[in-house]
Design goal:
The complex is a heterodimer of chains A (522) and B (170). Helices cover 40% and strands 24% of the residues of chain A. By secondary structure, chain A is of the alpha+beta class. In chain A, strand 15 and strand 16 form a beta hairpin. In chain B, strand 2 and strand 3 form a beta hairpin. Chain B is elongated and about 70 Å long. Chain B has 170 residues and is of the alpha+beta class. The chains are: A alpha+beta (522), B alpha+beta (170). At the A-B interface, strand 18, helix 14, strand 19 and helix 15 of A face strand 4 of B.
């Protein structure tokens, strides 16, 4: 209709609605959550007509809310922004610049899956990236639309994304599930936490239905039999039952979470993690915005020679699986994936040989773990002295001291840092050992922190500030001058004007790269 | 200004500027308010219960008063001596903290927002706090106890500089 002009008329991008099927799925979802309550209402109020009406009214309200939500939620993607309008009484208008988008997370829950829908969560970069404000979610759109959004939102090429050829390109596979990894499942806390949550949910359900565990015949009989046996046997039986449940539960949670796991590098420049049996998830991380990787080894997993690699990027959710690029895997595999994700040799990142920290750091780690243990022991003896029944508490607590000492020693042994060609690598922790490889170009500031005690032992903690992940990664307890030299070498020029004695530290940090290499000089 | 380093401290020279001398009074007033909040309830209970009041209450009330008053006398001048800040064309550099010292450096090119804040007590002393935020959740650099005029001037320069820098600073 319009004639050609030199500047094309600003075409209003049409607003889109959530998928029509949400008119069914939304209410079903809410009803599902209300089901125990409704069931309870109906069961306890047999013959009572008003209760039936209440239930019916609730159902109507739920459906109406679903329709209203669908009617009022609109979104669109313009050339440079993503906009989302929602709400009726309390209208919410969100608008996010597209160049702030870092991750796209597609989640398909069971019900969504039955209707071919997918939830889309867009992670963005912002100062408070952990607040909910950092993300924008569409619940839910069709699978095809979700895929289109995933491509469109993370693609920066000026050409419109989602062409047929690109859609067909398979992406290069970096890793896929090996069922032998199932052996690591019981060794992670997040699995155990998942089991706990599952147990709590089941218990809650029974509770809402008005059933106690003892209403179930088998449980009741077992409880009676247990009551008749000596206490140590009872504890042993109960303990092994809990352990067995935890192990089986961890296996189930692992299988549900990581079924069909694939890590691929997509042609549109993203890393994509796909996983899940019942709830299927797909996490896409813009590679250009990847700031590093982290190898996480909780104590049990470390003992089993396992590890897990996580991506450092902004816009990742903060739950236990936030940024996980893989399930718990053998250590070597974790380093391999980190290296593939960052396109760097493992020795340049997470497997780099690290510098040990000064002996003063060992004293500090030890005192920080042993002193609290000694205090606890003193308290235990104090309680034992005043309460005769608890007199065993003191001697028993003595066990804490060697444990704390071991913990302190291990924490010191794990301390380390190194500056490689493009990364700052730092390791710390014992109960949860973490090795972080952070891109030097991703560091946007430094914080040096020194307590009175650190000052007396000449140590300092250096925190590299970054937009990704947790916002800052610390190199714990390095010698004060080494810490400053490290930061100075990692980003040349930034620190130089603030150094006290510009020539006093011919430290060899950064010797593996030309001192001012590749940094824009001014 | 190659000042000699104190052994054990990071070899960084202190930032160029001190905060406003009025900040000492502000910190002292803060401490005194804390003193009131902590001791007044104890004294009220003490008076209300009269002879029935537990004997330790008088001791804790007295101890709180002594500790906080001591803090108000000793620490604010110390804070004034320690707290320093500096803005160059490339970076914001601050030093703060008493028991735990903190040196923070943020490149100007990564600054996203600059906020100036005047609390009620700060207004009393014509002081302000400038918060410089970068893209990181751990990043904000705060300069407390600046003279209000200096703070406004500082915020203006910083805002100008950051607006001149393209990109989203992540």
């Amino acid at each position: 209709m319009s004639t050609d002009t030199t500047t094309p008329p600003a075409i209003e991008t049409p607003w889109r609605r959530l998928d029509k099927r949400m008119l069914v799925v939304g209410p079903l979802n809410s009803l599902g959550r209300l089901l125990p309550v409704v069931a309870l209402l109906l069961i306890t109020g047999q013959g009572d007509v008003t209760r039936l009406w209440i239930a019916l009214a609730a159902a109507v309200l739920v459906v109406a809310a679903g329709v209203l939500r669908w009617r009022t939620t609109r979104y669109r993607i313009t050339a440079d922004r993503v906009e989302l309008h929602s709400g009726w009484l309390r209208r919410e208008r969100r608008s996010v610049p597209r160049d702030r988008i870092r991750t796209v997370d597609l989640t398909v829950r069971l019900l969504h899956r039955a209707f071919g829908l997918s939830l889309v969560r867009v992670g963005t970069a912002s100062g408070d990236s952990f607040a909910d404000a950092g993300s924008l979610s569409l619940d839910a759109v069709s699978k095809a639309e979700a895929d289109r959004l995933r491509r469109a939102l993370l693609d920066r090429s000026p050409v419109a994304a989602g062409t047929a050829a690109e859609a067909a390109a398979p992406g290069q596979e970096i890793a896929r599930l090996d069922w032998a990894w199932l052996r690591f499942a019981p060794l992670t806390f997040s699995s155990l936490a998942g089991v706990g949550a599952l147990g709590a949910a089941v218990f809650n359900l029974f509770n809402e239905l008005g059933l106690g565990p003892r209403d179930i015949g088998a449980v009741d009989a077992a409880a009676d039999r247990l009551a008749g046996t000596p206490i140590w046997l009872g504890i042993a039986v109960l303990g092994s039952a809990v352990l067995a449940t935890a192990v089986v539960g961890a296996l189930v949670v692992f299988a549900e979470r990581w079924f069909g796991y694939r890590l691929t590098r997509e042609p549109d420049g993203t890393l994509r993690v796909r996983r899940g049996l019942l709830t299927r998830r797909s996490l896409s991380v813009s590679e250009q915005r990847l700031r590093g990787a982290e190898i996480v080894e909780p104590l049990l997993l470390r003992a089993g020679k396992g590890a897990q690699c996580r991506a450092l990027s902004t816009g990742l959710s903060r739950d236990a699986q936030g940024g996980a690029l893989q399930p718990p895997v053998p250590r070597g595999e974790a380093h391999r994936v980190a290296s593939a994700a960052l396109r760097a040799h493992p020795l340049e990142i997470t497997q780099a040989p690290l510098r040990a920290h000064p002996p003063a750091a060992q004293v500090r780690r030890l005192s920080r773990s042993v002193v609290p243990a000694v205090v606890l022991v003193a308290v235990a003896f104090g309680v034992g002295a005043t309460v005769p029944a608890a007199s065993w508490l003191g001697p028993a607590s003595l066990l804490l001291v060697p444990l704390a000492a071991l913990l302190g020693l291990d924490r010191y042994r794990n301390l380390g840092h190194e500056l490689t060609g493009r990364h700052l690598v730092a390791r710390q922790g014992s109960l949860q050992r973490r090795t972080v490889a952070l891109q030097r170009s991703g560091v946007i500031g430094w914080t040096f922190r020194q307590s009175l005690f650190q000052r007396r032992s000449g140590l300092v903690s250096v925190e590299a500030i970054t937009a990704a992940g947790e916002g800052g990664y610390t190199v714990l307890d390095v010698a004060a001058s080494d810490g400053v030299a490290l930061a100075d070498a990692a980003i040349p020029h930034l620190l130089t004007p603030f150094l006290a004695l510009p020539t006093a530290h011919d430290h060899d940090h950064g010797s593996r790269v030309p001192p001012h290499g590749a940094h824009p000089t001014d | 200004m190659a000042t000699a380093t104190v052994p054990g401290q990071p070899p960084l020279r202190p930032p160029a500027h001190q905060v406003s001398p009025r900040a000492v009074r502000w910190w002292q007033l803060n401490a005194l308010l804390t003193l009131l909040v902590l001791t007044v309830p104890q004294v009220v209970v003490l008076l209300a219960l009269g002879p029935n009041a537990p004997s330790w209450l008088a001791i804790t009330a007295g101890a709180t008063a002594v500790v906080v008053a001591g803090y108000a006398l000793v620490v604010p001048p110390l804070l004034y001596r320690i707290h320093r800040w500096e803005i160059t064309d490339e970076a914001v550099y601050t030093l703060s903290g008493w028991l735990v010292r903190e040196w923070r450096i943020a490149p100007i090119s990564r600054v996203q927002t600059v906020d100036t804040e005047h609390g009620p007590l700060q207004q009393l002393f014509k002081l302000a706090t400038v918060t410089v935020t970068t893209a990181s959740a751990r990043g904000p650099v705060k300069i407390r106890g600046l003279a209000a005029d200096d703070a406004a001037e500082l915020a203006r320069t910083l805002t100008e500089t950051t607006q001149a820098t393209p990109g989203d600073a992540t």
